[in-house]
Amino acid sequence: MGRKLSYSMLLLAICSAMAATAICCHQLREKPEQPDPFLAASEDFSDAELQAQLNDDARIIALTLFAEARGESQAGRRAVASVIWSRADGKPYSMADECWKSRQFSCWNGKDGEKLLYLQEDRLAPKERQVFDECMGLAKELISGQFKPTVNSSHYHKSTIKPLWAKGMVRVAVIGRHIFYRRA
């Protein structure tokens, strides 16, 4: 009997891994008096703790990009990154959260998400490692606020399927094996 991977299970796994630095994944995002915690180091967190949080967020985004678009061109991966950017309203500190949201990116659904969390980049074949490194570069662009979206899209799917949610959406691009949409 399979378990569904929930946001809280993923959060628990990451927080457990980060216990040595004593920082929880959402501490930075839950400080309402600090609307953009990545622009300046918080008084409550050391530079090392802030950097650890940024690294964890970058890895989640990179894993999402890698799993969703590793077989696509660089333009295809940038388009998927544009969807993450759009769903987070361009807010760097919300990018990883958008990747985690339930049923938003199929790579995190079910047991696939559990496997993805334990991906060991250093064991990838050279070509896949190169793609992962590119995904990590895109992730760092996203969380640093330097990313420029290439498509105005909040949704996409593989061209081989026709999801119900696509009805009523405006098709904005076909890049590789993905079709990109925005709300009407």
Entry keywords:
single chain; 184 residues; mainly alpha; globular; disordered N terminus
Helix/strand layout:
Elements (H helix, E strand, L loop, with lengths): L6 H11 L29 H23 L4 H14 L7 H6 L9 H8 L8 H19 L10 E4 L10 E7 L2 E6 L1
Antiparallel strand pairs: 1-3, 2-3
Mean pLDDT: 79
> Spans with pLDDT under 50 lasting ≥5 residues?
1-43
Class derived from helix and strand content: mainly alpha
Approximate helicity band: 40-55%
Rg: 16 Å
First-to-last CA distance: 40 Å
Walkthrough of the structure:
By secondary structure, the chain is mainly alpha-helical. It has a domain at 7-24 and 46-151. Helix content is 44%, strand content 9%. Helix 2 (47-69) crosses helix 3 (74-87), helix 2 packs across helix 6 (126-144) and helix 3 (74-87) packs parallel to helix 6 (126-144). The longest helix has 23 residues, at 47-69. It is globular, with a radius of gyration of 16 Å.
